[in-house]
Amino acid sequence: MSDIGQSVDVEAPDDVAVLDDERSRLRDRGDEESSQVSFVELFYDLIFVFAVTQLAGYLVDNITAEGAVRAAILFVAVWWLWINTTWATNRLDPDAAPVRFTMFTLMAASLVLSMALPRAFEDRSFAFAAPYVAMQVGRCLFSADALARNGESAQARTSLRQAVWFAVSGVVWIFGATAEADMRVNLWVLALAIELTAPWLGFPVPGLGREETRDLDVAGEHLSERCGLFIIIALGETLLVTGARAAELEWTATSLGAAATAVASTLAMWWLYFDTGSKRGTRAFEEQHPGHLARVAYTYLHLPIVAGIVLTAVGDKGLIAHPHEPAAWQDAVTILGGPALFLLGNFLFKNATSRRWPLSHLVGIGLLALGVLGLGRLEVLGLALWAVIGLVATAALERLLLRSRAGAEQQIK
């Protein structure tokens, strides 16, 4: 009995010390396991499953030029919130109590923001804009404090510079929330332009200097894995859409064929990203400048990849709902445009990580573009089948070309 009591007394204080130790707010760069994605981060991502679902639902109900612009604004904002939080947790330790509680606070605010998405341009503009600004600025200030506590003053100044820029754009976000819908679009585009331009400029702030990519402290494996998980989130949304819609309908050859086509499209996109692109991106951090690669390939070039998946999910909803209707331009925008945008993003991403232009993706985009000729001739199901053919052909050609290149390099050796 005494031995058991002693073991409890010894272990309990250690657990408390780990949680309360100020230094534990940052990941230990000397520990390989510290760059692993934590359960708290995965828990946080669940909110963005809901956000992606909300965005897809909004676009389904607003397949117009105006609706597309508004959906694009909301999507970029959601992505920018997520990727900047990912940059923060790349350095912060989510298993430390202060960081964990901060993540929980961000989750609560993200849930409010996500619920407001469908009516952000109506009566819930403040419910969207206020949490967004608070999260962007608050996260930067928390990071600056955590870095300063650990003696990393240079990195702390970087977080402070980011906080200043997010505060400036935040004024525009909040002012836009008070404006009429059309003016709100213009102001929120301006706010996003400020935020997306700031990293390229180095977040310059008088008295605090500017940021250089060579000074960025990035754990490439962690960032690569986090972005891969967001791709999984987006692809999971397409499967949820397909399953939910198919379950509501009578099971016929047509409905099951439409569902199978939608699933095939999702599987093909998974293959195109994870077969070679994701692995190559992780290895590229060992060969290229980590800060520059992280900013270009993961912060910016993943935008069209995820957007293409979300747009494809919208197309899948239409496919399941009316597979035998004549394909219209709205169907082409989602069923062909979604995969084309996805391929374009992968084309640019793979070039950034491998320094090569994947010819297969250009062929795939060309095949998808030819599908436009089927408008007025093909049914929605036929158009979707053509999109799957384009994606599968791209994946097959990419694998063939990679094997051919690998064989040629082996002969040279």
Calculate the mean pLDDT score and round it.
87
Order of H and E elements:
HHHHHHHHHHHHHH
Rg, alpha carbons = 23 Å
Q: Specify the overall morphology.
A: globular
Strand content: under 5%
Structural class: mainly alpha
Low-confidence stretches: 1-23
Could you give the distance between the termini? 68 Å
**Major sheet description:** none
Task: State the total count of DSSP E strands.
Answer: 0
Number of helices: 14
Protein model, in words:
The chain is globular, with a radius of gyration of 23 Å. Helix 10 (290-300) runs antiparallel to helix 12 (329-354). It has two domains: 19-215, no CATH class; 243-412, no CATH class. 78% of the residues lie in helices and 0% in strands. It has 413 residues and is mainly alpha-helical.
Which key phrases capture this entry?
413 residues; mainly alpha; 14 helices; globular
Short summary of the structure?
The protein has 413 residues and is an all-alpha fold.
Itemize the secondary structure elements and their pairings:
Elements lengths: L1 H19 L18 H23 L3 H27 L5 H20 L8 H25 L3 H26 L2 H21 L18 H29 L4 H32 L5 H11 L1 H20 L7 H26 L4 H12 L9 H33 L1
Helix pairs in contact: 2-3, 2-4, 2-8, 2-11, 3-5, 3-7, 3-8, 4-5, 5-6, 6-7, 8-9, 8-11, 9-11, 9-12, 9-14, 10-12, 11-12, 12-13, 12-14, 13-14
Keywords: Membrane, Transmembrane, Transmembrane helix
Pfam families: LtrA
Protein name: Low temperature requirement protein A
